[in-house]
Amino acid sequence: MLICWKGDIRSSVLDMAELIRLYEENPNPRQVEKIVEVLRRGGLVIYPTDTVYGLGCDITNSKALQRIARIKGIKLEKANWSFVCADLSNLSDYVRQIDSSTFKILKRTLPGPYTFILPGNNNLPKDFKKKKTVGIRVPDNAIAQALVTGLGNPIVSTSIRDEDDILEYTTDPELIFEKWQNLVDIVINGGYGGNVASTVIDLSEGEPLIVREGKGSLEIF
Question: Which of 9, 57, 87, 183 is most buried, by the most CB atoms less than 10 A from its CB?
Answer without folding.
Answer: 57
